[in-house]
Amino acid sequence: MKDETKMLGPGHEFETTSWTLVRSVGNIDALDTLVRLYWKPLYFFVRQHGYPNESAKDIVQDFLTTMLEKGALSKADPERGRFRTFLLASMTNFLKDQAKSQSRQKRGGGQNLFSLDFVRGEKEFSLQVAKGERPEDLMNRAWAKELWSQALADLRGSEPALDAFRLYLAGTPYPAISAQTGLTGEAAKMAVYRMKAQLREIVMGYVRQTVSSPDDLRGEMAHFITLLSKEGGDLAFRDEPAP
């Protein structure tokens, strides 16, 4: 029987006993990664529930602060489902609590624990969100976009290779990519091929840290690619033969 702690070949070690990123929130880098990937989806979720901009900002800040103060993130049970499911349930309960305690004093004496760009978040909410879209669907879509943006920002390579990949994602044909980057046709194809492989590894690395089994990893990756395809960003996950 195939070793279930490995997935997709060598180099894809999988820890089945914990959400590695969630379990390490005491580490500032891990906490920063979680907040960076999930604050905007949470903000969109709250806004889509009808809360005005300022209230939604306070709710997201209070929610993240509360989760950190109570150690709820590190105590979450991976056996009960995926991390986004946990966050959705937690925020839903938090909103219910907010409705019952409107007069509750803001946590931290009014000081915001996290530095979040709500101005940009509100602009993106206004531009991207469809009226009538379910808050849960919106959060999932926002999660995919944030993960995609972060993965692209994490890409490393030469400037011509990165430019070639950006042009490829924009639908530019290879002859035009070569002309704009100075790469030969074969070099452009190789650069794109390698960048696609690197991007997949980055995305899978993030996803792997917030799921608890190989099946969940497969499911989350499939869900991510489906959501990404609706945004026209699934080119990086289309299989092509090596140049």
Describe this structure in words.
This protein has 243 residues and is mostly helical. The chain folds into two domains: 16-133, no CATH class; 155-243, no CATH class. The chain is 64% helix and 0% strand. It has eleven helices and no strands. It has helices at residues 20-23, 28-48, 53-69, 72-75, 83-100, 118-128, 135-154, 159-169, 174-181, 185-208, 214-230. α2 runs antiparallel to α3 (53-69), α2 crosses α6 and α8 (159-169) packs antiparallel against α9. The chain starts with 19 loop residues before the first helix and ends in a 13-residue tail after the last helix. The model is unreliable at 1-18 (pLDDT under 50).
